[in-house]
């Protein structure tokens, strides 16, 4: 009787064990399947973008002529009373390079606008996913981009293209066209942001840390501008960071800076923003950043594109694989104060850093306004 009872208990125990083991394996298998699907989706989501090269010319606005700049104001780079243009067609890169594209090499046009929709910041960046190297070149906004040099600077390109009801698409196309003349190709991706986006991103990440070399002091009641930033390592909110990026002229008794120094300050702000974005605490705010991009940033980058490049950028920030440059120029002086590029210097830097093709960009591929 006791033996029968023990047999029943053993069978019952074995059944429970088998049930537990069965449930465990079902759970593990389910988790494995879910993880496998998740990994597959994730890998697909963050897959490197595929660049489809145009098979012919693309339409862009022509280079129109704006009124000469007024040196007495900050927003001094062109007006918006522009005649309706007739589109022109251009190759976005040298036609001989149509089958010469480097694999996993991506280029970006970064456009920062001020309140008057003039270009305040213009940069071209590249990233090679094969070597994990990134380069960023700043282009001074006072570079002339119209052959007649009749007041047309890069700073006015966006507002020229956006006039006549053409809007953001027209503004971007005009900047692309003018950048094409300088570097010999149109970058794959573009990002256009204004002060609203600048404020929103920096506020969302809780500010940035930037070293200030000296006391920056400038007031302009006409622009309602009051810049007062003390020297040293500063934790900046969005307004202070914007003042730091915009600072150039100074009040009497304080130190002014050149446009090149201001470009370096802008690069420092961008590096600081990227470093903050990649902090673990800010990774959790991805939905917030996506909303900011959707509301305030105009770009042809898709969400999967942004995820891929964000992960890639995380691997190179703070290393020797992220480089920043500025095109060398010389100033024309009065009355226009152009920052004039030297074609050979431009080609050397472009071919060494951001050229997405195996062949070199040559003098015949660019149309730089010379002195």
Structure description:
- The protein has 371 residues and is an alpha+beta fold.
- It has two domains: 1-36; 60-209 and 227-365, Aminopeptidase (3-Layer(aba) Sandwich).
- The protein contains ten helices and 14 strands.
- It has helices at residues 2-45, 157-162, 167-183, 195-204, 238-246, 259-277, 280-283, 286-296, 303-316, 343-353, and strands spanning 58-60, 88-90, 105-113, 119-128, 133-138, 189-193, 208-212, 216-220, 225-229, 232-236, 297-299, 322-326, 329-331, 339-341.
- α4 (195-204) crosses α5 (238-246), α4 (195-204) runs antiparallel to α8 (286-296) and α5 (238-246) packs antiparallel against α6.
- The longest helix has 44 residues, at 2-45.
- The model is unreliable at 16-42 and 63-83 (pLDDT under 50).
Write the layout of secondary structure elements.
Layout: H1 2-45, E1 58-60, E2 88-90, E3 105-113, E4 119-128, E5 133-138, H2 157-162, H3 167-183, E6 189-193, H4 195-204, E7 208-212, E8 216-220, E9 225-229, E10 232-236, H5 238-246, H6 259-277, H7 280-283, H8 286-296, E11 297-299, H9 303-316, E12 322-326, E13 329-331, E14 339-341, H10 343-353
Helix pairs in contact: 4-5, 4-8, 5-6
CATH level-3 fold name of the largest domain: Aminopeptidase
Give the integer mean of the pLDDT values.
79
Whole-number count of domains: 2
Give the helix level as a range of percent.
Answer: 25-40%
CATH class of the largest domain: Alpha Beta
**How far apart, in Å, are the first and last alpha carbons?**
112 Å
Query: Strands of the biggest beta sheet: in what spatial order?
Result: 11-6-3-4-5-12
Order of helices and strands: HEEEEEHHEHEEEEHHHHEHEEEH
- How many E strands? 14
Beta-strand fraction estimate: 15-25%
Helices, by number, come to 10
**CATH H level, superfamily name of the largest domain:** LCP protein
Structural class: alpha+beta
Low-confidence runs: 16-42, 63-83
| Radius of gyration from CA coordinates | 27 Å
């Amino acid at each position: 009787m006791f033996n029968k009872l023990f047999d029943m208990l053993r069978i019952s125990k074995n059944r429970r064990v088998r049930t537990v083991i069965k449930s465990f394996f079902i759970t593990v298998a389910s988790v494995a399947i879910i993880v496998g699907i998740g990994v597959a989706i994730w890998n697909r989501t963050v897959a490197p973008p595929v660049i489809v090269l145009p098979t012919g010319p693309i339409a862009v606005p022509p280079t129109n002529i704006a009124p000469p700049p007024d040196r007495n104001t900050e927003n001094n780079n062109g007006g918006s009373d522009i005649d309706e243009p007739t589109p022109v067609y251009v190759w976005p890169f040298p036609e001989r390079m149509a089958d010469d594209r480097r694999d996993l090499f991506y280029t970006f046009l970064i456009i920062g606008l001020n309140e008057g929709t003039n270009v305040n910041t213009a940069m071209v960046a590249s990233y090679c996913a094969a070597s994990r190297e990134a380069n960023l070149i700043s282009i001074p906004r006072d570079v002339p981009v119209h052959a007649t040099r009749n007041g047309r600077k890069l700073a006015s390109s966006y507002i020229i293209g956006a006039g006549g009801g053409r809007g953001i698409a027209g503004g971007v196309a005009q900047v692309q066209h003018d950048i094409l003349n300088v570097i010999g190709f149109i970058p794959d991706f573009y990002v256009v942001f204004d002060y609203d986006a600048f404020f929103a991103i920096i506020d969302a990440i809780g500010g940035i840390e930037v070293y200030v070399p000296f006391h920056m002091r400038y007031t302009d009641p006409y622009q309602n501008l009051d810049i007062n930033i003390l020297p040293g390592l500063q934790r900046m909110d969005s307004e202070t960071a914007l003042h730091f990026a915009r600072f150039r002229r100074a009040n009497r008794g304080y130190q002014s800076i050149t446009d090149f120094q201001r470009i370096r300050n802008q690069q420092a702000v961008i590096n600081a923003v990227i470093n903050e974005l990649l902090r673990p605490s800010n990774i959790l705010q991805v939905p917030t950043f996506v909303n900011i991009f959707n509301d305030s940033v105009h770009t042809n980058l898709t969400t999967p594109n942004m995820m891929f490049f964000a992960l890639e950028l995380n691997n190179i920030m703070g290393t020797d694989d992220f480089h920043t440059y500025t095109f060398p120029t010389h100033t024309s002086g009065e009355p226009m104060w152009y920052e004039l590029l030297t074609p050979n210097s431009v080609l050397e830097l472009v071919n060494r850093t951001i050229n997405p093709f195996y062949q070199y960009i040559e003098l015949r591929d660019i149309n730089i306004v010379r002195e």
